[in-house]
Structure formats: structure tokens, C-alpha cells
Amino acid sequence: MEPANSGTTLTQEFSIKVSDHMGGETLKHCYQCGTCVSSCPVAKATSSFNPRELIKLALMGAEEEILSGESIWLCCSCYNCQERCPQKVEIADIFYALRNIALKKGYIPSMYSQFSTALLDVGRVVAISKFVENKRVTHGLPPLQEVGIDNLRKILQATGFVKLEEKEEE
Amino acid sequence: MSETKIGVFISDDGKQLSKILDFNALTEFSKQIPGVVRVETKSEFWRQEGLETITEAIRQGKINRVVIAETQPKVSEIKIVQAVENAGLNPYLVEFVDLKDHCASPHRATPAEATEKAKAMLLAAIERAKLLEPLKKLEFPVLKSTLIIGGGIAGMQTAVDLADLGFKVNLVEKEPFLGGLAARAGRFFPTDDCAICIQSPASDVKTITHTSRKCVYRSGLSEIPNLNMYTNSKVMDVKGAPGNYKVTIEKKPRFVDEEKCVRCDLCVAACPVEVPDEYNAKLNTRKAIYINTPNVHPPVYVIDESVCRFHDCAKCVDVCPTNAVNLEQKSEQVTLNVGSIVVATGFQEFDSSIIKEYHYKEYPNVITNLELARMIDGFGPTGGAILRPSDLKPAKKIVMIQCVGSRDKRYNSYCSSVCCMISLKHAMLIKSTSPNADITICYIDIRTTGREHEHYYENAREMGIKFVKGRPAEILEDSEANRLVVDVEDSLLNRVIELKADLVVLAPAMIPAEGSVELAEMLGIKLDEDGFFKEYNAKLRPTETKLRGIYLSGGATFPKDAPSTSLHAHSAALKSAKFLMNGKIIKDQKTAIINDEYCGDCQFCPVTCPYGAISLEKTTEDHFVAKVSDLLCEGCGICVGTCPLNAIELRHSRPTQMRAQMKALMSVNSTSKPLVLAICCSECGHTAVDSSGMAMMQYPANVRVMRVPCTGILQVHQLLEAFRFGAQGVMVVGCKNDGCHYEEGSQNARQKIETSKVLLREFGVEPERLEMFNMVFIEGDKFAEAAQMMTERVKKLGRLKITGAN
Amino acid sequence: MTSYSLFLGCTIPARQPNYELSARKALTKLGVDLVDLANMTCCCPPPIQSIDMVTSLAVAASNISVAEAADLDILTLCSGCFESLAMANTLLRGDNKLRKKINDILSKAGKEFRGSIQVKHLVQVLKEDIGFERLKQSVARPLNNLKVAAFYGCHALRPSNLLKLDDPERPSILENLIEALGAENVVYRNKLKCCGGLLRGSSDELALALAREKVLNATKAGADCISTLCPFCFVALDIGQVQMKRKFEETYDMPIIHYSELLAIALGFDPKSLAPDIHRIKLDKVLSKIM
């Protein structure tokens, strides 16, 4: 256990920030029963991920610890915790919110920057190579339709996604 | 109508008020109002010579209406009104004004304006006094008998209390035997004595020891002469009113004559039909003719008519030595006339099969606390042995899961309060007979709040019972090892563990008894949002409902342990006794009255009356008029506020009386200041004004206060009229939304205010001139703040111009 | 004849022609008309939701609006697409404030979400539009009691209050669909547990551990194959198996096959025409049992 003056300042601001963010509204309902942990396939496979603990840290305001850590990226989004939570805490959605907040602060795992680049370039998270496209004819599949990249870019501009991506580039 | 002769009596409160208010001016002002024949001031009028002054004037026939400005009228009025009645004047012809807490105290910084407000207050009281009517005191007969619905420990205790007090008691139980949930529980925490003992109500103390421990079958319950018991019976219909209910009971046939049965058990042995025993959680079987356990009450067998073969078999008839079995018995309808009704229907276990991840009813080795209780009970299906239902082998590893369906927003969000102790009790009882049993309790929190309960928890730990702070996500079956596996995170260790178990015991939520919704509707009482019967006010009026004459006893209001149930049951008996003991109900006739001519049978009022006091009476083929029951009417006036045709009036708060007050309050204003009318309800609003004065708070004298029984009485046109009479602003002050003393009055009022605002806007009047405030008695500061705020607001908005107003 | 806008998403056209081929052939044979609309982009599944939830909702809504304009319900093959689109559809229909926020964004691209169509998963369409009985009757080549371990994946079922596809604890659609083809539904441990698919690329070790558990459980229960509904699950369990063998030095041979492939084969299509080479764990054993 860490000694008392290790510098973790526990404040309310971060819990407010999370519960004000889309997906984080139910954060404060948690009463730490641990149902989410025993429902979680990842928590059962590794001790580096504990959803109950992460929610507790968020409630206590441990912003830096959560956002800079790797834990929040280990959720596999299976939603089992959210289905079973007796307080209807939207746990998986809270992790999305924490990731959104982390990204805005500049903590970006590399895989995600690849996704966002692809989305902006070709309108897909997985690019479809010319080779694959041509193979469709061999298979007897109809050709792919246009994705309408211009409209998509307008939307991504409006949501601020473009700015995020630019931040990622830096 | 004979001439009204009003006597105005202004108390100086030990010559304190005249330091602020100009008493000469008040006296002169009152004297010149038409109808006033006498004006007097004294130090006080509610005691001694002051009171004599008033009663003397009445006796001499000098006055026939009394207006009195006295301190703390809510206290002093009781004495004054009694004295007035004794002197020979109808007590409803007295009008009170509080010049201290409503005027001198809050406006002491502005004496001139305070005096002006005092004049307005006196004028309003005088004008209202002119319109007061001599009302009656109504008397209704009350039968000195009662019906107790439910024969568990609460119902039995209340029944015995009332029988001992001399009332005729009818106890109705839907099961064939008394005892309810407690009978199945085996033992009661924290003393672990037998539940059957404790369920025996203490009857007629002969000596202390004689009554302390007696099982139901020894309690002499059946020998109490004025206690009638109807088992295997249900309440089908309730008609009538408080003091005089007509209840129809359906007595299902037992098929065994209670007078002849000798409990020899020969019929049971002879019966060829065997079915799973529901009472014992289907852990064993019973016959079609059966008794639950040897020590039940009444000690008579009963036949389950859904499985009995009747005359295709009739073996029980053949073997019975006293011819007690009677297969011809039919259902009986019994009508009972009672004065009061007590609901003691208790609670039941939540159906855990709804929580699919726990596999209750799918995996036979997942059971509930109640089922475990049957196993632990020596009288039970396994003779006290703890076995796995799947193969009847001994259960060595037991895992208990708490909060199954409790504290769970998906099912029941409340804490069921007794389950932690129940599980601890079971764990310790098992450990004491099988020290090698391996028991783990999985919990979110351990709640052991009662007397001796924390000690109980300590004992459990001492005995080696293990605790895991974590709520399991799922119970899985390990078919190879023939065991159950419970996945749970031990949050204190930060580790996910797999607990292997022979038996998993769920602690389900405790939910309202079956049939609660129908019973509540039959009786006209409310259920709370969890489906339990709603107590009127758990602190001030426990065991009462919003209707007179109907009381609640025991777990029917919320899950309770045995000591709490006992207390509650005694309390319900007391309340019921107080209601019944005089043989009559005496009420003020401050009730609603319908004007038949205007009534358009729209049928709104019967629905909105919280007390079911309004019914519809047929006058011709297709015409109804509303009719108010003076017995049921509580005098709130919500019906008045509801009626779209102004066909209902509330006696003592008639529209004419209210209008006269409003007009008078607004009329005295020589300084042309903007006036704000504050309409306050008697329960919370008006008392908040009292408390602001008592606490010496200050607010502008522009605010003139008027009292109504409940803000629900207000109609939209009355609110608009206030502006016509000269109010620049109107504030309506009522109880808080979830605390209206008449159920929904303040919420109704809010809707009226919203509608009025829309209309004001249409008329070109700023809607913010009208506002509603909700507060309680001690929030005098809130009232002062609101009064200040409204005054400033209307000052800023400027003078309101309405045609036809001054 | 019912018509649907076929939403392909990204992964299926990029990597899983087997899913697309089998689905198109089977649905067309069963009388479902599939329309390929233009201007449909990525659905913005969890990886994009992790970056920005609002972006995912907006793009999903934009895709829905394309189908709305054509007055067609959407049929998705990929469970990830299903979750993203159906969730957005339900959320925006139920929350006026959110809808306004998203429509303000969409207006920049000249689009508007109206909430007039439904988003359905392949299995929903098979159940509701065709039904188990008719499906059974359409089977030309019953699957000879092939032992199939049904695997829903996570996003076909959860979050259940928004997707409303089936009971999240006791689903039965897929099991019924499998049995309708003449195959046998195998009960295996933790069938609803996640395969770890979304962890691939960021936490490979974890992903493989989860996938391995699934493969082992299905093997233990005696299944001939695992039937999937999602390209991510497919990859996690199929390519994943190859990686697992190397990492854990174990041998397993559990073919992974999309439900639509089983369906197409049962309806009489030649397995060779369904791009079988995509499967890294070969289908020989499965095919020999049913052909």
C-alpha cells in the first residue's frame, strides 16, 4: 500500500467531469458491489483490469492515474457488466467516456490513431485495397458503392473528430 | 337572516403590540366598519377576564359574531372556541387574526405600514365573519368491532390486544393455518428462540411467567370469547364507511369438522394422493389431506381440493374415528359488520427465478433462505439435516448470496432489512450442529443495526463462517464435479474467486404479499412505490392510513423483524381502539357540499377526492349528481378546485367568504404601495408564516396573508380575481410536492398556477406576478425570503393596469 | 418480397467474402431483396466510439438517414455494425435533445435523421421475415446432426435494453435457426462470454486467452464447429486459433463458420462457391459430415 503522502489528491471535480460527459451519467450510482468484476471476461483473465476499481478511482477523482494508464483500454466492450449491474450503472459506456476524455487530453494508443486516419481518408476503419475490390468480380459479388467521403468529412468536421485526429498527428 | 352583530377583540399581548401598532387607530378603524357593534382591547383575551369579556357579551346577546386578534391563534383558539360554545354561541362563528407573528413582529421596522396591514387584516376578518354560517358538529356511529386481515404474528397480536380491550374481533387468514411467514421461519434472531413461541400473542396477563413462552397451540387464542377466527378464508368485498363497514368473507371448505377432529392422523395415513409439499419448499411430499406441522393452529386437518379424489376414494371418511371428515362441505359466504379494519398481510419472498443468472428453479441445489429454514427446522422435511435437493446427500460446502433482488434497481431498489440477520442466523444454526460445514456469505454490506445484532455478527465470525465482500455475477454448474460454482470478486482482496458449493442459498428480497394491489383497491388505501401499504406518516402517525378506520399492522408496510413487528402490531391495536372506543365519530361540518343544479355529472370530483368521499347518485335515466359523504370528507377542498362548473363549495371556506377576505386585504393601502397577496395552506404554508414571525424575521408589510385549508381548493379564476381586487402579485404557499397533507392538493395547485400563468400572458399581464412556493413549518426563513422577493419583483415590474380595478 | 438496405460495413468487404457471399446467396434464395445503397460509410463501431461517442452516433445516424431516404429498413451482417446502428437508432428515437444535437451536426452535410426505419440483424430477419418453419422447409441439404456450438458474440445481444434482439441471459434465436437446418445445438460452458475480439491489436495476449477459453469449451462439449455472427468473432477464433497454437503450444482443430455459411450450404449452395479459403482452420471435417 502506498504511504499516505504519496500525492494522490482526491477531489470531486473529475467525477463531475465524467458524469457530465455522454455515457458517464450514471457514475455516481455505483455502490462497489463487484458484480461487474465477476461478470467481466477480462478481469477474470488478468488482474490489471478491474472495472469496479476504475469506477472507484473515477469517483475519488484520480484523473491522472486513470487517463494516463492502460487499464481503460483493456475493456473489451462486451457489455456484460452493464447488463448485470444492480444499480444500472452504464459501466461499459463510462469506459467509452473515459477513453473519449483521455483522447482529448492527448493519451492515444497507436491503434486508434490508425483507425481515425483511415476513417478520414477513405471513410472506413479498415481500408479495402484495390486487389480485394477486384476480387469481388471473381467471387461474383456486386461492385462496392461510393461511400460519399465528402459528406462524411463534413460530419467529422462538425463533431470535432477532425481536430482530434490532427492532435493525434502531433 | 338576522342582523350580524360583530364584536372585535384586539389583544395587546401584555402591552407589547401597541409599541409597534397604533392601537387607537385600529380601534377607531374597526368601530366605523358597518356591522361592528363593539371593539375592545385588552392585554389578552384567551384567558381569565379577557375571555370573560367575550362570553359575557355573548350571554347578554350583545354580539353574535366574534373577531379576535390573539397571539398564537392555533393554540389559543381551542380554549376560546370552547368558551364561546359554552356561552351559547355557535363555535364556528369566530374568526381569528394574528397581529403578532403575522404583523407586529415581521414588520417592526415599519410601524406605520404594519398598522395599515393590521387594519386590512381586521377588515378581512370582519367581512368574513359576516359571511360565516353556524355549522354543526356531526356524529356518526361506530361499531365496536373490527376485522383483522391476516393471521401472522402481527395480525394475531393486534387481534388479541383488541379482544382483550373488549372489542369484537374477527381475524381472517387465507391459509388453512395461522402463523404466516414466521411459522415457516423456525427460529427468530437474535435470540434464536422458536418463532412459534414468539408468535403467540401475550394474552391476559395472569402472572408474568404464565404468558412469557407459549406456543400458538397453547396460547388459548381459540378460547378468547370475543375473537372469531376464520381460516382458509379471504376477504372478497368491502362496503360501507369508517365505523360501519360491511365485509364479505369467503370461507373455503376445509372438509374436516373443527368440532370433531381429534388429530389422530389416521386420515393422512390412509390417503393415497401424494403431492410435492409447497410449505416445505417441495423438499418432501404431503397428502391431499394434511396439516403443515404438528403444532399448528387450528389443530385440524384440511383437504387440498385441487388434488383430492373425493368420492372416487373417500378413504379418509372411512377411517376417521369421529366422522369428522365431511366431503360435502361447501364454500360459505360470511358477512361481517365491523367498525374498523386492520391490514396485517405481511410480506413474501421475491421470486428469484427472475434473476436468470442465478438459475433458481433450474438448478435444484440453488435454494432460498425460507427453503433452508424448512430444512433446519426439526419439524421440517429433512428432520434438521442440511441436504442437497438434487441427490439428498449432505451439503458440506454452502455459499450464501445476499441482496438477491434487493438494492437492485432492476427489481426492488430498497434494502429488505432482515436478510443479513436471517442468513447469519441460518449459517450459525448449521455450524452449531455441523461444525465442519464450510459456509461462505457473499455480501455487498452486512447490515446488523438492531439491539444485539452486531454481537450476532461477531459470533458468526467467531464460529468460522467466511465472508466475501462481493456480489456474485453468476452461478454455474460443474457437471463433472457435480457441484455448483459461484463466480465472485472478493473486492477486499481485489481478486476474482470461484467458490465451489454443494448448496447455494439465496437471500431474496422481501416483497409485498400477494393480492396487495387488489386489497388496497378494495379498501381505497394507497400503496407506496414498492407496493407496500402506505402509512400515512411513519413518524407522526404510524400504522394509520389516509382513511380513518383502516390501520396497518406489521410487515405489510415494510419488511420487519419480530420485535419491530410486535411493536407495530400493538400500535395498530391502540390506534384502532382509540377509534372504536367511544362508539362514535365526532366531526366538524367543515365539509364539501354540492349544488345539484350546477352539477353536470362530468365525474371529475369522485376521481380526484383523495378520500373517496364523493360518489355519484343517479337522479334520472341518464343523469347523475355528485354527493359528498360528510363522514369521509376531510375538508381539504380539492374537489372545489377540480369542479369545472363551480358546483361544489367547501363550508367555512366558501368562495364568497374567500372573495370577501381577498378584497378586504387589498383595500387598505393609503400609501399606494404594490400589494402582494399570499394564499397559504393551513398545514404548511400558513404555519411557515407563523414561524417566520416567531423567529423575528422581517419582510415587507406589502405582503398580505390569507389562509385556505389546502391550496388544492384554489381555482384559476380566483387567482386571476386577486389581481382584479388590487393585488400586484400573488404568491401561493403550500406543502412540498411529496408532502401535501391532503395527498395531492399542492400538486393540483401547481397545475392551476401554470394554467393561470398562460392566461395572464394572454391578458397582457406578466406571468411572473403569480408564483407558487413549497415549504414546511420550520422554513419561516424561506417564507420571508419569498415575500421579500415577490415584493421586489412587483416593484420592478411597475403598476399593473387592469380595466375595472383600482 | 421484403427489401432491405444491405449494410456491409468495412470488415466484411475487406476480409470476409465468405460471409458476404453466403449471406447474399442465402437471403436471395429465401426471397429477401437486398439493395446496395450508395453513401454508406463505416458504421463507427467501438473503436471509433472509444475516440468520440458523438462522432459514432452522428455517422451512424447519417447512415440510417440514407436508408430512410430510400424508405428501406437496414439489414446488417456484422454484429458490430448492428450494435452501432441499432443503438444509435433507439437512442435518437427516444431522446429529443440528443436527436436535435445530432441533427444539427448532420445538417452540415445536408442530412437529417428522422427515426423512420428499423435496423435489423441477419438473424432477426431470418426469424421475423422467414420464420423457423419456412426455413426448415427450404432446407435442401439437412446438416446431418452436425454438432454446432452457437456463439452470438456480444454485440448482437448487448446492451439488451437498446438492441432488443433477444433475451440476453437466455437467447434462443440462433439455437432455433441452427436446429432448423437439421443441425444439433451443443450446450457448452460460458457460451455467452466474449471472444476477446476487440482486444486484438491492443492487448493480443488477453485476446488470445479469451478466444482460447471459447475454443476449449466448445471442444470439451463435443462440438464439430463454432457458429459465429460477427466478423470480429470469426477472426478472433479462426486466425486466433492459429496464433493460439503457436503461443500456447497446444493443438486444437475447431472450425469456425458463420451461420450464413451453414445456411447457404443447407439451402443447397456449393461450399466451394462460398470463398472457403478464407477459413484458416479448414472446414474439411465439417463438410465431410454434411455433404
Main traits of this protein?
heterotrimer, B: 806 residues, alpha/beta, FAD/NAD(P)-binding domain, 6 domains, five-stranded parallel beta sheet, 23 helices, 29% helix, C: 291 residues, 14 helices
Brief account:
With 170 residues, chain A is an all-alpha fold.
**In CATH, what is the class of the largest domain in chain A?**
Mainly Alpha
Helix proportion range of chain A: 55-70%
State the CATH topology of the largest domain in chain A. Answer: Fumarate Reductase Iron-sulfur Protein, Chain B, domain 2
Low-confidence residue ranges of chain A: none
CATH architecture of the largest domain in chain A: Orthogonal Bundle
Structural class of chain A: mainly alpha
Strand numbers in spatial order across the main sheet of chain C? 2-1-3-4
Can you describe this structure?
The complex is a heterotrimer of chains A (170), B (806) and C (291). Chain A has 170 residues and is mostly helical. Chain A has helices at 13-20, 35-39, 41-45, 51-60, 63-68, 80-84, 91-104, 110-122, 130-139, 149-159, 161-169. The radius of gyration of chain A is 20 Å and the shape is globular. The model of chain A has no long low-confidence stretch (mean pLDDT 89). Chain B folds into six domains: 1-135, Rossmann fold; 145-251 and 337-345 and 513-580, FAD/NAD(P)-binding domain (3-Layer(bba) Sandwich); 266-330, no CATH class; 351-507, FAD/NAD(P)-binding domain, CATH 3.50.50; 589-648, Alpha-Beta Plaits (2-Layer Sandwich); 672-799, Rossmann fold (3-Layer(aba) Sandwich), CATH 3.40.50.960. In chain B, β13 (274-276) and β14 form a beta hairpin. Mean pLDDT of chain B is 91; it is low at 208-213. With 291 residues, chain C is α/β, with parallel strands linked by helices. Chain C contains 14 helices and eight strands. In chain C, strands 2-1-3-4 form a four-stranded parallel β-sheet, with helices on both faces. Chain C has a four-stranded parallel β-sheet with strand order 6-5-7-8, with helices on both faces. In chain C, β7 (225-228), α12 and β8 (256-258) form a beta-alpha-beta unit. In chain C, α4 (53-69) packs across α5, α4 packs across α6 (96-107) and α5 crosses α6. Chain C is globular, with a radius of gyration of 19 Å. The model of chain C has no long low-confidence stretch (mean pLDDT 94). Chains in contact: A-B, A-C, B-C.
